[in-house]
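Cross-posted from the bioinformatics board.
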Amino acid sequence: MTLWDAQVGESVRVTGLAATGSGRRRFLDLGFVPGTLIEVVRRSPLGDPVAYRVRGATIALRGVDARQILIER
Amino acid sequence: MAKSPDIGCRSCGIASCAGAQLAHGEHATTVALAGNPNVGKTSVFNALTGLRQHTGNWPGKTVARAEGSFAHNGRMFCVIDLPGTYSLSARSAEEEVARDFICFGRPEVTVVVVDATALERNLNLALQTAEITERLIVCVNLLDEAKRKKITVDLDGLAAELGVPVVGTVARAKRGINELKDLIDEVASGRLVPKPRMVEYSEEIERQVAELVPRIASLVGNALPARWVALRLLEGDRTILPRAVAHAKEINASPVPAETT
């Protein structure tokens, strides 16, 4: 499953990234590193983007990006 | 390109950097301030420079640029407040500005401001910066917020682990700013030489880096660390090599002070 499938209030753990190259690097720079715990903070009124709490900062991701982050519950 | 002015700050290219009063031929020491968004970097900038500030935009970019100056121990320092970024990967205009200034603006000292309450996240930028320049200081800001959250930061331990000087600050209350100025002066003058600990990558990456480094060094000389350029190339960054080569030519064509010859 991917980060996009996680529900608001849930805490999940990153298991991998589907992105490659500079897109992958971008996720890593933002703190989406395998092993990281992520909390789903809130969904925007239209459902996309979604705000996530990652290593002490709140980061909003669009659905296309959240679907590239692999997670486990 | 315009001729560089006789006085003032060679890196910011303006005759008098934000009110820095300089005698003819004297030049201010350039200090770059980098950091993640929301770490109080601008508070540190304000605490360092007070009201001696200029704001504007980076040439050709809609990215705000602030510079200021301060005097300390009889020297003038010109501070450039870089945009807040999580990394130096140059994936956005802000990151590109920050990366280019640290790489090509040749600041004498780079201060990375980090958030004491989110060190894990913030140290990524410090480690990336250490790959470009060893004249690096880490400023752990928001120590008051950390205290409120019952977080204690072992500043000495951090300095030992990173191999660079570390100073703790509460910039809003101007706490630690004088120590930061002392450190900037010591690193700028060469009395203190940071020895940043480098990230060691996996065996395969290190092998490829070792293969690339001599070839890159023959192209860019010592204009930029060859190891850093090699890592960017392995990441697929195609823009860095041509820029580094152009930068190396520029440096060789005009050695810094034009008036000594």
